[in-house]
């Protein structure tokens, strides 16, 4: 490990100890902010020299973004008449544009090669998470707009992070890309439809208006990205390197803005909402995996479906909440879910990475 990485990791440890010291001896939680954020930033950068920490780098950056939004919300709420929440939709569009520049017809080959797995993945995604979401919203007795946000996070397509985690988990990477792509393209119909029939009992849902918002937020940027990919990609190879970085920075900035805008509400209802989020996504991973197993799919494919069901596009959920004018309430579930999905998904993927995949044995042949 390089000396610079060691120094950064050492600095992260010192700042972490200082944060604990200030909290214990000074009993001043707000004062721990700079130490906590500094420790996380140094850990994320210094951890690049350690394989195990490097795999968790994005998760650590997510923690840092959440900490910034919780400790210093005043800097990310407004400047004069400009509200930072107005950045959410452009940031999501930037992320979707990035996705479009990475897409090609190969992403849809899985539909032809493994139609059964794709169908099981899509049906599981658009049934398990919405139904579990509405059950949790009712079971916990959340206020109507908070409840609608839980249904919303369960009704959006899978996120691009699932593709990265599928690679780490030694899952079926082409299938992961196919399900994520197809579920995203289905979102303009499926998300408003699910919200209308499931969340309509909590808040008023305008199906057509929401459908147009989803088209504006994801389909148009993806289409533009595809055009760029098709026309000038060969002459702009740097785009392949730059856009994923821009996309990740966009996710982190969006998370800071969302957390900052709903910080007060998060402090009041956050613990209970976090528990609901843990149950929601963990149930998605579990039922997603077994939906594949019960249909006779192999281990890598079941891992893929598990991640595609449990991982949601939290950014899109935040964008829809913003368009509804309820980002500080309906958007709270996504503010909680994005960090938890990243943490839990990373832990699950890394655990699977260290588990050997047993050869699938054809029972009929084995019995001969």
- Mean pLDDT equals 84
- Which descriptor suits the 3D outline? globular
What is the string of SSEs from the N terminus onward?
HHHHEEHHHHHHHHHHHHH
Strand content: under 5%
Radius of gyration using CA atoms only:
21 Å
* Strand ordering within the main sheet: 1-2
Number of domains: 1
Query: What percent of the residues sit in helical stretches (DSSP H or I)?
Result: over 70%
Class inferred from helices and paired strands = mainly alpha
- Strand segment tally: 2
- Indicate the low-confidence ranges by residue numbers: 359-368
Report the biggest beta sheet as strand number plus sense, adding barrel if it closes.
2 strands, antiparallel
List keywords for this structure.
Na+/H+ antiporter like fold; single chain; 17 helices; disordered C terminus; globular; 368 residues; mainly alpha; 2 strands
Structure overview:
This protein has 368 residues and is mainly α. The chain has a single domain (80-355), classed as Na+/H+ antiporter like fold, CATH 1.20.1530.20. It is built from 17 helices and two strands. It has a two-stranded antiparallel ribbon with strand order 1-2.
């Amino acid at each position: 490990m390089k000396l610079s990485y060691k120094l950064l990791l050492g600095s992260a440890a010192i700042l972490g100890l200082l944060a604990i010291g200030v909290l214990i001896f000074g009993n001043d939680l707000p004062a721990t902010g700079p130490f906590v954020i500094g420790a996380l930033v140094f850990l994320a950068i210094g951890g690049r020299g350690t394989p195990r920490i490097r795999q968790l780098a994005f998760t650590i950056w997510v923690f840092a973004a959440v900490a910034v939004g919780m400790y210093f919300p005043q800097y990310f709420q407004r400047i004069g008449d400009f509200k930072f929440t107005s950045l959410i939709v452009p940031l999501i569009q930037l992320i979707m544009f990035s996705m479009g520049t990475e897409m090609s017809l190969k992403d849809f080959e899985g539909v032809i090669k493994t139609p059964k797995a794709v169908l099981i993945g899509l049906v599981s995604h658009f049934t398990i998470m919405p139904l579990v979401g509405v059950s949790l919203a009712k079971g916990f007795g959340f206020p109507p707009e908070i409840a609608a946000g839980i249904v919303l996070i369960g009704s959006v397509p899978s996120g691009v992070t699932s593709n990265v985690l599928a690679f780490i988990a030694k899952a079926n990477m082409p299938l992961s890309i196919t399900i994520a792509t197809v579920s995203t393209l289905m979102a303009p119909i499926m998300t408003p439809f699910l919200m209308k029939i499931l969340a309509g009992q909590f808040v008023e849902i305008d199906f057509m208006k929401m459908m147009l918002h989803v088209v504006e937020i994801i389909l148009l940027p993806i289409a533009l990205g595809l055009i760029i990919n098709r026309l000038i990609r060969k002459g702009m190879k740097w785009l392949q390197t730059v856009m994923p970085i821009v996309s990740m920075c966009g996710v982190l900035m969006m998370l800071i803005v969302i957390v900052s805008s709903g910080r007060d509400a998060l402090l009041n209802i956050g613990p209970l909402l976090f528990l609901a989020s843990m149950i929601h996504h963990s149930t998605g991973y579990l039922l997603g995996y077994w939906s594949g197993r019960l249909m006779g799919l192999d281990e890598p494919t079941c891992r893929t479906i598990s991640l595609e069901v449990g991982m949601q596009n939290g950014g899109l959920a935040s964008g829809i909440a913003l368009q509804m004018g309820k980002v500080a309430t309906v958007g709270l579930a996504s503010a909680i879910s994005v960090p938890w999905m990243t943490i839990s998904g990373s832990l699950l993927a890394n655990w699977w990475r260290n588990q050997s995949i047993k050869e699938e044995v054809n029972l009929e042949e084995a019995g001969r």
